[in-house]
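Field: COMPLEX_INPUT
Field: COMPONENT_COUNT = three
Field: RESIDUE_TOTAL = 863
Field: MODE = joint
Values follow.
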Amino acid sequence: MDFGPYLMLATLEGTVTAAVLALTASGLALVFGVMRVVNVAHGEFFMLGAVLAWWVTHIVGGSAAIGFVAALIVVPILVGVLAAVTDMTILKRIDYDPERTIVATIGILYILQQVTLMTYGPDARPVTPPFNTRIALPWFEFVNGEPGIYWPWGLSITSYKLAVIGAASVVLMGLWLLMTRSKLGLLMRATEQDRDMALAFGIPVERIYAVVFGLGAAMAALAAVLIVPIQQAHYLMGADPLLLSFIVVIIGGLGSLPGTVLAALLIGLSDGIISVFFSPTLAKILATLVVAMVLVFRPQGLFGAKRT
Amino acid sequence: MSLLSAQGLTKQFNGLLAVEDVTLEIPEGQVRALIGPNGAGKTTLVGMLSGRIAPSAGTVIFDGRDVTAWPAHKRISAGMGYTFQITSVFPNLSVWENVALAARRTLSGRSDMENAVSASLERVGLIDHRFEEAGDLSYGHQRLLEIAMGLAQAPKLLILDEPTQGLADSEVAAFNQLILELAGSTTVLLIEHNMDVVMQVADFVTVLDAGKVLFEGIPDDVKANAAVQAAYLGGGDAAA
Amino acid sequence: MSGDMRKSLLLHGGVLVALFTLQFVLPAYHHGNLARIMVLASYAAGFNLLFGYTGLLSLGHALFFAAGLYGMGLAMSQFGAGTGLALGVGVFLGALIGGLVAVLALRTEEVAFMIVTLMFAQAGYLTILYFGAYTRGDEGFVIAQADRVFLGRDLSNPQSRYFFAFAIFCVSFVMCLSVVKSRFGKVLVAIRENEERARMLGYDVAKYKFAAIVLSATLSALSGAAYGLLFGYVGASFASVQYSIFPLLWVLLGGAGTVLGPLVGTAFMFYLIDLSSGVTTAYMLIAGVVLVVLTLFAPQGLLGEMRRRFWKWLP
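Field: COMPLEX_OUTPUT
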């Protein structure tokens, strides 16, 4: 394949990655933004979403589409409720102390991962996509100075991948509306601004925290349900989304939703494009170091706008 | 000669002038009180003197050296002692260790250090509490511990940020006595709300209002000055 | 006060004597385990200097452990260095990387510090994979028996191995004890307890933190180099996130900010995992549960609780 079509393909694949990443990272950003804690188990909620999606489609049986739709509805709710319960039983009791929360969520990470290993097993299992038409994509070339269109061999994308991009956009719009237009969003933002003040005004901060933690995990689970027809469900699949979400959230200015989505696009696209030029390992090394340097030299990138 | 000299100190926060063009000269051995209504910029000014806050303009000369660019710990090493307005002790360490940490920086010999710690604790009357954890002390005792930590460093200049806040009357009297004993040997900068304390212990008073020096003089003159009366003594918290 | 000194000396001296004596009575299996535990406990002790005494939580200590391990291993496999020199290279590399990480990471605080150290360690892990031509990536490489001779003793022999592990443990143990008793160590504790106060007593907090990181990294690297030498294997898994989490787990369990805590925590966790791995492959589940239970109910760890309740004098 020529370079031009190859780059276009990388861009499209990158957009799919970016869409899923934006969903996952928004969940992490939401939790950090409102609760000021880092959830290290976020990647495991993602993994749980994928594994549960396999279970649900497996149990429902029948046509792929019905099972998938069922998973799309049931799985985020299940994972969200589990996360909310975790919040109420563990995080609330350590009073959301930032450092102890990290240690506790590392523990939760191992618990979720290992329980999955014990029940679901070490295999990677696929979920059939509800639809998967291959769509060939055109490219242009100049023949005797005249532009012409042709269909290079291998330049194609599936209808399902396009649907993932669409679905992620819709969900992110929904989250944005929830945060800016609804009463719940208002309460969340009030809690984010000043926890003590929110308490003084009678906002049930603890319940808001449980909802936010659940919602954040549900976002990760939803992203996983969308990706699982493309990538198989495996008990160790949580590590990469966690690392990438960290990177996205840090670059986006922790807690800011538009910043997170923008950063997800940047990382998702560059991940696809960088790996055209570099080995994936080198790309990961560079990305990790760049993000560490962002934290070191522009710490306000971590905490959003500089606060005085 | 002035031990501490500040020229044209100014601090802006987001365009707001918290301290504007303040010049101070504190001669060696003097007990200087810094007073002013809440929000006058006392804490910001002291922050710039001790190095906790970087000034927007102006210079600080301490003990003959320009320390404007020095970080706080270096100024302390050079002989400033600082006690916090909001008590800031090491709550999980013993009273003894709190003061020892203050003394150890300057005194390397073990017996010298132990003598300095005992002396400081005796001076503030906490020697019997030396094995207790600092966090278990009453609020008043924690304030005294702060002062003991200041004393143990044997500083050239002791900066006390509202040391009598929250002390009982008897403890305030003991504090006054302590400062009077220090007077002459140690230079003291005292930020104080309690006018009785100021009148009793200060040699010289600087009145700050709205970020500027409103008046300077001996305590009696301050009391008599009409502008000070209006800005501060006659104000809402005159009794404080 | 001197009575407390005597008790402390008796306890810690007693532990060393017990560890020394155990090699003559333990059956082979536990003999080998204890050698491993002592080296890993030295790693935990290095971590504890930073986390327990200075109050800096690094999530990337595997970087330093692996620096020692690979510095030692690569010096041998690539440059043909002798055992002593290779050990020195490993320790030096750890100190160097520690200094570098300290300069950068100390510009951040708290949660950002944790994430930055995590990311540096991750970059280190990936670098090992990237240079697979030399490091043999995930698979790792074996240190030949001929290279595992130190001061005329064959370290693949269980007796010598136990003795060398014991020596490494003594070094880290005595070093931690003396640091804790020293002026330097007391300032570290002061920084942990109230950083701003320490600064306003005239201590150069940044300098102390830097020294604490370098010292902690050096001890971790020493343990890493010794581990490779004693057990003859250098692999990328020792640089993974898991090996950054392990010392945190051991120290939290044993008691952060206690000299004996790392040994107790490491031994406890080692046998917990050893016993459970006979039952299930999902042995990391235990690690997870222990972490959660500790943060919830005993943030001070085993020895921390002992100190709080009975032994006030425990260093």
